[in-house]
Amino acid sequence: MQAKPLVVRDLTIHYYTLHGVVKAVRGVSFAVGRGESLCLVGESGSGKSTIGLAVLGALPSNARVVSGKILINGVNILELSEKELEEIRGKEISMIFQDPVASFNPLFTIGQVLSDIIKYKLGVRDKNEAKKLALKALSEVGLPDPERIYNSYPHELSGGMLQRAAIAVALATRPSILVADEPTTMLDVTLQAQILDLLQGLRRKLGLALLFITHNLGVVAAICDKVLVIYAGSVVEYGPVDEVLLSPLHPYTKRLIECVPRSSVKTSRLKYIPGSLPDLRKDYPGCIFAPRCSEALEKCSRIAPKFVEAKPGHFVACHKAVKAG
Ligand code: ATP
Ligand code: MG
Description:
single chain, alpha/beta, Rossmann fold, 8-stranded mixed beta sheet, 4-stranded antiparallel beta sheet, binds adenosine-5'-triphosphate, binds magnesium ion
């Protein structure tokens, strides 16, 4: 059987700061198959972007992968040199970010960026051939008049158009994996839906393994097959999207779902989860969510719950949920 394009095993990442060592990612494992999309969900600061950057081999210099493996098409990228990584980045794995403006250098046209990538990553030396492929990449993401977009500078495009162009750049080299870190957060709702539709279509057409990062559960329902819920750098729940959203097992997931505003129901206040993320410089012997958990048992803050398959394909790390099941 062919290996899944992206496999992450027991990944632990620390940041070294003036105020101490921030243990941002704590033993995270997951895999994304061809044509599959996995959402990483969790509150701000839970370690989602850190995982995304690690998978791209692009962590900031003060970060250290303490343990684990990141296998891209079977190769552990943590054992590669920067030169070898550069070969994989862009070619086998690409990333799109929240702010499409930041993805582009204001001094270059969209066409220059695309042609350069096609030249260097795909080795297409012929200028006309590179332009042809660039225009194809632009029309593939639904941009009208690719020739005009090709000759435009980033500031000449709207946010939605620029995010489409960023997707064109990310996919022009035909990577097998796309990491999308909150790619619709800065767009208005109609544009959000269009970009999600586009990503869905491209995922199916190109058989992309999509790692989608978001804190928005509405977006999760729209785009994902599977969901991985992380809290303070630890995986608390994993399963098929319908299972996790309709029958959540972990109290943290339940609270996150309760916090989604429902426009059909008139409520006077927005809900939130009381308390805040724990101090990530510390170690926690038990469940890291226990101090904020309204369902915590006596042993929760002492003994770490195992990550177990509570229902077929639906995993949870919670003493209470497993006991109840
Ligand atoms: P958000 O939803 O706000 O984007 P996130 O889930 O993506 O949050 P991360 O950006 O991965 O979270 O951050 C995880 C933790 O690591 C946070 O405590 C954050 O402060 C810390 N962190 C992130 N980047 C750095 C850095 N370069 N140096 C030090 N600490 C960092
Ligand atoms: Mg982030």
